[in-house]
Every structure is written in C-alpha cells, then in structure tokens.
Amino acid sequence: MEPAGRGAADGEMKPFNPQAARDLILAAARPVVFLGMTDDWPVTRWTLPHLCHVLQEQTLRFRIGKRKEDTEPQFEPQCDYIDGTIRQFQDWVSGSSHEASGPFFRYDPAESWAYADYKYLALLFKDQPEMLQEVSWEDFGFPGRDGRDSTLWIGSRGANTPCHIDSYGCNLVLQVQGRKRWHLFPPEDTAYLYPTRIPYEESSIFSKVNVVNPNWQRYPGFSRARPHVVTLHPGQVLQCRAALGWQLREVRG
C-alpha cells in the first residue's frame, strides 16, 4: 500500500491541505495511509504513561484473548472481560507484580493479550473536555471535528480483532504508540472470506476465516483473496471506508 505523502519536517507545509485530503478520502478506491499530517497534534503524545497520569483511577473494559495459534477466529464471546485502569494494564504488560496489575494478574501476558476498544473520548474525558481539542480532524477537511466523536483503542502485543466488514461509516485511524498491522480486503473478495452473521452485531459482518492463520482445507476459496497489508506506525493515519471492504487489526507492539 502506498502512503499518500511523506512526513513533513518541522516548519514545512503538510503534504495535503484540508480540502485535498478530504477529496482523496472520499474518492479513494483503495485504503490510503497519510504521513506527515499529525506532527503538530498534541494527541500524538498520548502514550500509556501520559494516559495513566490523565485518567488516574478511571477504569476501562478490557477484552482478554489467548495468544495461542489457531486456525479459527477468536470471536468476542470466546474472550474474557475485566475492568481495569490503564496503569494496571501498563503494569501487566511490563511484567510488574500481581498487586500492581490488579484484575489482570489472573492472566499470563506471555499467553494472553488485552484490548480496550471503542472508548469514546467524550466519555473518557467528560471532566477534562480540553483533551478533545488535542485531536484536529479539520486538517483532513472536516471542519469543527475534534476528538468528540473519536474513540480510543489500546491493546497489548498480539491483540487482534476478527476479520469483519463495517456496514457503514468512513474511518480515519491515527496510530499514536506502537504498531498495528491491518489486513484489508476489497469488497470483491467477500465470497472468499466466508461471511457470517454469527456472532450477531448490528453494524458488522464477520469472516469465518482466521486470515493470519487460515484453515485451508475448510476455507479453500480464501486462497483467491488479495488483501492490502499495511503496518501503521506512530503519527500515521489510515483511511478506511466501509465501501472498501473487510479489515482485521492486530497489535504488533
């Protein structure tokens, strides 16, 4: 996948002005990665230690999955769920004591991963609304869009979502810390992904295939799928519209 532009050094103009970025987002027939568009965004400093300091004892719901290799997807009903703070999550990832990692202590980080997703910034920072101004989607041609409608995703190495297609929406995804690998399939690959409505989710359709470790005997048609695979690095923004097809996300650390 080709990036939309190269990173701008300090003092240089961004690769795209807001209108050009918006036009590209709405017209692109393939996923697009933007470079050099967020270098001046305060949100790029939202590392785990920073969020620990800002959110203090506020708890988030985390999904816990198994690291073991399997040819079947690990759907959400097969995972465990716990409520913990970001500091407890950070301590668990870093291998701190059981006492420091709180509810995470029951899980070995060498055998399990944890993922908190779809955490609306407007709710997380309801007592700190100024934090929402640290996100500026205006740079991508969406006037007045700060972080109010954005969500936060945090995961440990190996965390992933099952491959799925969202039935609506146009998403811009900013990578803040670590790396995330995306497997993106065009709509014409739908038949090769063996779609299913189980588990049922109103806005998503899932694939029966574990696309990173497929069961070739059970899903032979998957060999005809042609994904775009991109690893998103800090500061980069991925444009991913529902009309562009299927996606799987895995945290690379």
TrEMBL record:
UniProt-annotated location(s): Cytoplasm
Keyword Transcription found: no
Keyword set, alphabetical order: Cytoplasm
GO cellular component: cytoplasm
SMART domains: JmjC (SM00558)
Keyword Cytoplasm: yes
Function: May play a role in cellular stress response.
Protein name, entry field: JmjC domain-containing protein
